[in-house]
Design brief:
Layout (H helix, E strand, L loop, with lengths): L1 H16 L46 H8 L1 H4 L1 H21 L5 E12 L1 E3 L5 E3 L6 E15 L4 H67 L5 H35 L28 H4 L2 H22 L4 E12 L11 E10 L7 H68 L4 H35 L10
Antiparallel strand pairs: 1-4, 2-3, 4-5, 5-6
Helix pairs in contact: 4-5, 5-6, 5-8, 5-10, 6-10, 8-9, 9-10
Length: 476
């Protein structure tokens, strides 16, 4: 008994001091630009902080209806439910991996009835001899087995599943941020559509007045029939434009319904021409904002999982050690089964190793190394794509801001042109074609201004997504 205890102590000590094979994880190097082109001398490099709060970033637009819609995404969107279920699955796999640290204990009861063997006078054993006694055997056993993690295989497996679970959690946050951003951008496009429709309706009212004036002048013999036809054509074309906007609006409304987990037939968003606020980004935004992106965090943790998988495949080259023990009772009678004379037990280690596998383990290790290299490349590509996404939207906002100033001047000139040509037409110095042309130019300038606002709102929301959330959340 003393020797057995000594063996067990040595094995436990080895399990606690055993080395984990395989490389320890080290974050891969990434060489991003030192600054963003659009924010030169303001951005700095820092460490990933994907756990930093992202805030209710959509509230910066000051739209109550939008706030209510975005809140429903986490509750009803089916893509988010799918990502959440995948995260729970990853946690369950992690729990299963951690369970390998502990022994497995099983219990069983068996009752058998059978005929044994008997021997002849010559000493030859005759199996199944009819003269042999038929006996009953009852067994009540409890056994335990525990794999000693000498080479760190279990530890690496836990590390792998831990990293996979964290990557799955980041995937969930990435999916949530993506759906929220898509909803916000779609909502902006719908509101711009409403504003354009209102503009066309107001323009239609103005064109009706122009048509009435032209008809009055025609009836008075001052204007020709061609002027009436031109005015009527312009009015009908504008009315057609307003109707056509309904197709696009219906599609935006249907998309929003699906994003919040509702059937399009059960969702209606009341038209409103009030546009959301367009927030301005302050100069010198910290680079920590980009580092909160959950897709970057997920990619990095997949590298860690792939690194741990290398350790798992390397541990397969070494023998495994399993400590086993069992105890219980065995008797032909149930009445005296649980008694000291009927007690049986066993205790001892088992060492198992694969002697030949035709290169299977080597191939599995090469596969794990290749997966690690792929994960590193994917991570670096996602980081570069993140920098590109920020740069794209920063430049878009800057250029649209400049364009909006010029377009405002164009609108003012177009409105002045309409007034001048109207007066000249009434005075009889120009034809009605000049009035129609000026009005069409003014309407086009108004629509372009709305389009610039809409594109700016969409780019603004895309930049917030690229930065991982609200820039005002500074808790690190």
């Amino acid at each position: 008994m003393i020797k057995t205890n000594n063996i067990i102590c040595v094995l436990v000590f080895l399990s606690l001091t055993g080395c984990a094979v395989g490389p320890d994880y080290k974050k891969p190097d990434v060489i991003p630009p030192t600054t963003f082109k659009e924010e030169a001398n303001h951005w700095k490099l820092a460490e990933p902080r994907d756990h930093t709060p992202r805030g209710k970033w959509w509230e910066v637009y000051g739209d109550i209806q939008l706030n209510a819609l975005v809140q429903q995404v986490a509750i009803s969107n089916q893509n988010i439910h799918s990502a959440e279920a995948q995260y729970r699955q990853a946690l369950a796999l992690l729990g299963a991996a951690r369970a390998r640290y502990f022994p497995t204990v099983t219990g069983n009861f068996a009752h058998t009835r059978g005929q044994g063997t008997s021997s002849t006078n010559s000493g030859v054993t005759i199996p199944g001899n009819p003269t042999a006694a038929i006996t009953d055997t009852n067994r009540l056993l409890m056994s335990a087995s525990w794999e000693v993690d000498l080479w760190g295989r279990i530890g690496r497996t836990v590390e792998l599943n831990q990293a996979s679970a964290e990557a799955s959690a980041a995937d969930l946050q990435s999916a949530l941020l993506s759906v929220q951003s898509t909803l916000v951008q779609t909502y902006f496009q719908l509101r711009i559509n409403d504003a354009q429709r209102k503009l066309l309706e107001q323009t239609t009212i103005a064109y009706k007045r122009s048509l009435q004036i032209t008809q009055n002048r025609y009836e008075a013999g001052i204007a020709g029939r061609s002027d009436v036809v031109q005015a009527d054509t312009q009015l009908k074309s504008t009315q057609a434009q307003a109707i056509d906007l309904g197709v696009q609006r219906a599609q935006f409304e249907h998309a929003i319904a699906v994003l919040i987990g509702k059937a399009p037939s059960n969702f209606f968003l009341k038209p409103s021409s009030i546009l959301p606020n367009l927030p301005e980004f302050p100069a010198g935004l910290p680079s920590e904002l980009l580092e909160r992106r959950p897709d970057i965090a997920a990619a990095e943790r997949r590298i860690q999982a792939a690194n741990a998988q290398i350790g798992v495949t390397q541990a397969a080259f070494f023998p495994s050690l399993i400590l086993g023990a069992s105890t219980g009772y065995q008797s032909s009678l149930l009445s005296n089964l649980i008694s000291l004379p009927r007690r049986v037990w066993s205790l001892g280690p088992t060492i198992a190793a694969t002697v030949f596998d035709g290169g299977l383990r080597s191939s599995q290790k090469e596969q794990a190394i290749a997966l690690f290299d792929k994960s590193v490349a994917d991570y670096r590509q996602i980081v570069l794509a993140g920098f590109q996404e920020v740069e794209d939207n920063l430049s878009t906002l800057r250029i649209l801001s400049e364009e909006a100033k010029v377009q405002l001047e164009a609108r003012q000139s177009a409105q002045e042109s309409v007034t001048l040509f109207n007066n000249q037409y009434i005075a009889g110095t120009v034809s009605y074609l000049n009035v129609v042309t000026a009005q069409a130019t003014a309407l086009d300038a108004d629509i372009r201004s709305l389009n610039i606002i809409g594109r700016s709102l969409v780019a603004n929301a895309a930049l917030l997504k690229a930065l991982g959330g609200d820039w005002r959340e500074r808790s690190i």
